[in-house]
Predict the 3D structure of the following.
Amino acid sequence: MDYFIIRLFIFFSLPYRYVFSLCLFECMDIKNIQEVYIVDLLGVMLMIGVLASRYHGSSRNRCNRYLFWLSVVITISCITDTIVNSLGVYEITAYRFVAYIGYFWLYFSMMIIGPLWVLIIEQHINQNPSKLLKSLINYISLIGVAGLVINLFIPVIFIIDSSCKYYRGQYFWLYIGYALFFFFIGILVYVRGIRHSGFKTFFPVFQFFFPIIISLVLQLLFTEISIIWSGCAVSVVLMFINLQNENICIDKLTGLYNRYYLDRFSHCFEKLGSFCFMMMDINGFKHINDKYGHSEGDNALLMVADAVRTCVGSSGSVIRYSGDEFIILLNTSESVVADKCIEGINKNLENANKFSKHPYDVSVSIGYDFFDMKQIELDKLLEVIEGKMHEEKRKYYMAHDRRKNRVE
């Protein structure tokens, strides 16, 4: 208990006293290297499990790729942590340079996981990174790298003595602060995105955040333990489990939500008040399937899914309801916003048709209205909105030959 109180006193002391005291503790040979091996091995095993599960899907979208590289960084860091701690405990002075490179990587990796975390969140909620955030990541990363380079000549971040022992420098906390800064930015991006869209997502933002915070605090208080990277590994596994659970609500072809998502979370829509509910159908889809085959029908579905996803973004949710029917949920009660969304979808499809090599053009009919789920049941809502969609479809076929998809 007294030892813990001393740690708390050191943690809240003045910076110079804090650094000096921590260095004293780091000089003590109280680090149990076997425990370090076990903790880091656990982190590596967890990450290998995630990498083995996500590797084949790592190229399907940016969110998966970012998660893949986050897992790679944590795996390398767990292995590096084991190596540098072994060199310090056993005082293998011949590999002092290896120890320095190892700690250089550990500090550098703290600069990687924060931005990757933010990018994963932005991609998951269909929000493109802002220019301000990109600039912030670039400039702070340059400052961090510059600090590590300066540390080669003036050891202000960390020190490796002649016996391969590691000591924290005066400004080591800047790198922990850098990681925490981007973790908090990620939470803000997530909360802002959810408030903007108004609809349920599966991203476990707080489940990911808390294991890392706990491990960072423990690492700051008890320098003889090594727990940061295993804490990061636990966070990634929690994220991975939740994203796997999301798959039951994802359409395998388009990557959009499926009908189960609508059925499962329709009760949550009551909290939104009045919002826009759209139903969309591909014009002449049966003709595309019959004349060009089902593979071309799948291509048409993918073209529509991309056009709608790009337009809706983080403003709502897109659902593949059945066959070639889609539902769009927009968190708005203004007709101007809904009409602008429809205009954007049609514009995206026009551009896609221009550059595609398909022997047909893809177009859609969209009907929409505004509803308050406290005042109408989902089945009745679907009946109303389907009628509006069919009305738009009739208008389309009055102006186009039902048997043709490419209008001359």
